[in-house]
Design brief:
Layout: H1 2-20, E1 51-73, E2 76-100, E3 103-110, E4 114-115, E5 118-127, E6 131-140, E7 143-144, E8 147-157, E9 160-170, E10 189-200, E11 205-216, E12 229-239, E13 244-255, E14 272-286, E15 289-304, E16 308-319
Antiparallel strand pairs: 1-2, 1-16, 2-3, 2-5, 3-8, 4-7, 5-6, 8-9, 9-10, 10-11, 11-12, 12-13, 13-14, 14-15, 15-16
Protein name: Phenol degradation protein meta
Keywords: Signal
Organism: Afipia broomeae ATCC 49717
Length: 336
């Protein structure tokens, strides 16, 4: 078992090092991805028992791209951009009783909610709202984020748990051309992903990784075709008690193909980003219903042609099925 674990860690480290060493990286329109980096973390590969579950994620981000560097967003060309954003993302997960290839079949849906990104641009060019050239322009609008629908198969084998799945992003229709503050990216996309968790109940250790490729479709409002992207997330978590966990988290992003279309005025727009951070989780019960909470904070660095900043998640998850309204089995064994 230890040999398998060491091999798994070695593969992950080699993959990260190889990606960091790649010379040509690219970034999507607006320097943002439809896949929310850092969304997966501890227990990423674990599929719960059949039933219906609900998770509410509140996402925060504060970052900037300075040095006079330009950023194409909303059909505009902006420079010296800073942004502060928050979104609330409610997701319903249905793990069906069905088995396919020995794996549990599951479906998920994230409905759009209101967000109000606050975006400041030191220099803005070709804007119908602010004129041909604007200095120190701030835009903040309350609007809808996008829909996300997904499905996956989940397997278990001893301490190993893994998933293979696909999700799709559907624009909510709230996107406004020429507006800096858009919660929707107006970019349909398909994300193919795989997750893996090694969870040892005897020592209360969770090692998880998730990787995926995002295949972007054209933003028809700006005629901008973002290239395809790769994202990798990882988490190392220790159960200090049955209820309390603490650990390290991180993610890596790199676009793999060039941007195109008449809206891609900066060409391939090369870029990438890396992030490291921490995670704290606590599980408690209300009546007999278990409630799991988690905070994750990421600090980005080595950003190229993307904003660099701090991202955070506050997550609450709860089983909705009546049969599941009871304490879940502990992920660590009881100690004498």
């Amino acid at each position: 078992m230890r040999c398998k674990l060491h091999a798994l860690l070695g593969i992950c480290v080699a993959l990260i090092c190889g990606l960091v060493a790649t010379e040509h990286a690219r970034a999507a329109e607006g320097g943002a991805s439809v896949y929310l980096l850092g969304a997966r973390g501890p227990g990423a590969g674990v599929t719960p028992p059949p039933g219906v579950y609900f998770e509410d994620d509140t996402y925060f981000y504060s970052g900037k791209i300075g040095g006079g560097r330009a950023l194409p967003t909303g059909g505009l060309l902006v420079a010296n951009v800073s942004a502060q954003s928050w979104f609330n993302l409610p997701t319903t997960l249905w793990v069906t009783p069905a088995k396919i290839l020995g794996g549990d079949l599951a479906f998920s849906a994230t409905i759009p909610t209101f967000g109000a990104p606050r975006v400041n641009a030191g220099l803005l060019v070709n804007s119908p709202r602010f004129g041909p050239v604007g200095l120190n322009v701030t835009d903040e609008k309350t609007n809808l984020s996008d829909y996300q629908l997904g499905s996956f198969l989940g397997w278990h084998a001893g301490n190993f748990h893994w998933q293979l799945g696909v999700s799709g992003v559907v624009p909510s229709g709230s996107y406004v051309l020429g507006q800096l503050s858009n919660a929707s990216l107006n970019r349909p996309a398909v994300d193919v992903f795989g997750t893996l968790t090694w969870l040892d109940p005897a020592i209360g250790l969770d090692l998880s990784a998730a990787a995926g490729f995002t295949f972007n479709q054209r933003n028809r409002a700006t005629d901008y075709q973002s290239g395809n992207e790769f994202h990798l997330e990882w988490a190392a978590t220790k159960y200090l008690t049955k209820e309390f966990t603490i650990g390290l988290v991180g993610y890596y992003y790199q676009q793999m193909t060039a941007d195109s279309g008449t809206g891609a005025t900066l060409g391939a727009f090369e870029g990438r980003v890396v992030a490291l951070g921490g995670s704290v989780g606590y599980t408690f019960e209300i009546g007999k219903i278990p409630l799991a909470t988690r905070i994750k904070v990421y600090r980005e660095f080595s950003a190229v042609n993307r904003m660099e900043g701090t991202a955070g998640y506050f997550s609450i998850s709860v089983p909705l099925s009546a049969a599941l309204a009871q304490p879940m089995p502990s992920p660590i064994k009881a100690r004498d």
